């Protein structure tokens, strides 16, 4: 009895012993870190004095016993790993004994996680290579000296392959890229990249999206843990999820005006978004593309698929919405990827929770699909009379690229001012696709809708 009551204390004492060991390990890690930073600091400097400085470093490097360092790192790694194993088994033991949950959390959060991080950090240490693998010399990454934040610099520095290997792509190094407009949003990007490696990220998807929409796209990857809803529930089963608004608890609402799905209703003037109003109301959504409407511009899915029976299998829905088009197409055994941005409402989460695939892309980028691959591109909701003709031209050429010969382009309810219609019509018709359907309906006094179903011709060139 007495022995067992002493047990937690004894454990704590032992734990402290380990902690000291861990701290010792961390000291070593930190010293190795400063060493590696010593090298990287001089690595991209250009001016001659600094070049000389770099040369002295190189000499030191030349005289440095690299094998000893490597052995040393190996040794530390082994120690860390042993420690980690011991600690982990300890945690498991404690878990079995129950009751000491506080200590378990402490071990988990304060000891095991830093240990993991230290382990990873150690493994990431690379001694700089002076020459490339082949005879090529490394060109300086043009943006690297623009940013001060170490994590951004680390991200955009090209990563040399290990031990002189050429990688699976036939390259010597991998480039991590960011959108060039990131340069214009230096302050915001530095805020975005300010975190402790391995800890939780800020709840800042909104900042990230703002950066993306302003052309800082792609964003750098981050090495922090993204937050999730604290009360996340498993999604509804697939036979129910397709036509059901998801559980409020599966969304992080912090950056929206609304705090639940009901609030996103079209009846609520403070819903916080303006495009596709009503698309969080499943009963309304159920009518789209399957019921006759009074407007000639509303084509039905069954009529479209009947043009190419069995041939339409995969496609892209480029628009703003909650995935209803993809849901209807799924019922027809067609796989649709839906683009989505979380502008004012959690569109990405809803599409995913319905069991469909959201693609988080802006208009900034070439689509991540190969040439001649898609059977269908459906576009509704995002393109209307605001879009610049040159931008539209680049987008349409990109769609043409990914659409396969015989694939269908479905422009759904594009709208613009009457007097602009000729310009836009020319844009859509310039590719000389086969016209299956073409309809224009009035939208308001001076606006019109245009819908078109066009087929990409063969390209026998
Ligand atoms: C590298 O350069 C040397 C001479 O400078 C040459 O003999 C060799 O073929 C080159 N190797 C490659 C892979 O280009
Ligand atoms: C969905 O499937 C589960 C089991 O696979 C079943 O219990 C449930 O009733 C189904 N729901 C609906 C709405 O059909
Ligand atoms: C829609 O209209 C067409 C004729 O325009 C008709 O054949 C079809 O049955 C209608 N479908 C529904 C669901 O009302
Ligand atoms: C979809 O595929 C399933 C299974 O192959 C089949 O039973 C069903 O009839 C198909 N639905 C349509 C609309 O083709």
Features:
seven-stranded mixed sheet; binds 2-acetamido-2-deoxy-beta-D-glucopyranose; alpha/beta; two-stranded antiparallel ribbon; 461 residues; 3 domains; 14 helices
Word description of this protein:
The chain is an alpha/beta fold and 461 residues long. The chain folds into three domains: 123 residues; 74 residues, no CATH class; 173 residues, Vaccinia Virus protein VP39 (Rossmann fold). The strands form two sheets. Strands 5-4-3-6-7-9-8 form a seven-stranded mixed sheet. A two-stranded antiparallel sheet has the order 1-2. Helix 12 links the parallel strand 4 and strand 5. Helix 1 runs antiparallel to helix 3, helix 3 packs antiparallel against helix 4 and helix 13 runs parallel beside helix 14. The longest helix is centred in the N-terminal third of the chain and has 42 residues. It is globular and about 80 Å long. The N terminus is likely disordered. Bound molecules: 2-acetamido-2-deoxy-beta-D-glucopyranose (4 copies). One 2-acetamido-2-deoxy-beta-D-glucopyranose binds next to helix 8.
């Amino acid at each position: 009895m007495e022995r067992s009551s002493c047990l937690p204390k004894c454990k704590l004492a032992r734990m402290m012993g380990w902690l000291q060991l861990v701290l010792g390990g961390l000291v070593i890690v930190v010293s190795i870190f400063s060493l590696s930073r010593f090298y990287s600091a001089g690595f991209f400097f250009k001016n001659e004095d600094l070049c000389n400085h770099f040369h002295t470093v190189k000499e030191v490097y030349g005289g440095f016993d690299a094998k000893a360092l490597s052995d040393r790192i190996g040794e530390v790694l082994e120690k860390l790993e042993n420690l980690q194993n011991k600690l982990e088994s300890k945690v498991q033991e404690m878990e079995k004994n129950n009751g000491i949950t506080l200590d378990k959390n402490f071990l988990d959060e304060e000891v095991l996680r830093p240990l993991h991080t230290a382990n990873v950090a150690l493994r990431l240490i690379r001694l700089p290579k002076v020459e490339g693998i082949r005879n090529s010399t490394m060109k300086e990454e043009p943006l690297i000296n623009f940013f001060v934040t170490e994590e951004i610099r680390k991200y955009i520095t090209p990563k040399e392959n290990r031990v002189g290997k050429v990688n699976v792509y036939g390259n010597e190094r991998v480039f991590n890229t960011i959108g060039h407009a990131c340069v214009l949003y230096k302050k915001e990007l530095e805020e975005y990249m300010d975190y402790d490696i391995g800890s939780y990220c800020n709840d800042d998807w909104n900042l990230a999206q703002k950066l993306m929409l302003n052309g800082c796209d792609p964003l750098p990857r981050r090495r922090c843990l993204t937050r999730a809803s604290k009360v996340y529930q498993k999604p509804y089963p697939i036979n129910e999820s397709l036509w059901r608004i998801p559980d409020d608890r599966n969304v992080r609402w912090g950056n929206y005006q609304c705090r639940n799905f009901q609030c996103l209703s079209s009846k609520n003037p403070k819903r916080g978004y303006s495009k596709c109003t009503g698309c969080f109301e499943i009963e309304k959504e159920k009518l789209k593309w399957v019921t006759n409407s009074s407007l000639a511009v509303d084509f039905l899915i069954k009529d479209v698929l009947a043009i190419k029976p069995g041939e339409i299998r995969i496609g892209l829905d480029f628009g703003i919405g909650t995935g209803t088009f993809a849901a209807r197409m799924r019922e027809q055994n067609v796989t649709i990827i839906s683009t989505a941005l979380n502008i004012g409402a959690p569109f990405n989460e809803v599409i995913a929770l319905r069991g469909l695939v959201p693609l988080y892309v802006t208009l900034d980028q070439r689509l991540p699909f190969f040439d001649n691959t898609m059977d269908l591109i459906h576009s509704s909701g995002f393109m209307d009379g605001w879009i610049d003709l040159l931008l539209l031209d680049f987008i349409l050429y990109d769609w043409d690229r990914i659409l396969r010969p015989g694939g269908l382009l479905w422009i759904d309810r594009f709208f613009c001012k009457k007097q602009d219609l000729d310009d836009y019509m020319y844009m859509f018709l310039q590719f000389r696709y086969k016209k299956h359907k073409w309809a224009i309906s009035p939208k308001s006094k001076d606006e019109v809708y245009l819908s078109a179903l066009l087929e990409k011709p063969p390209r026998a060139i």
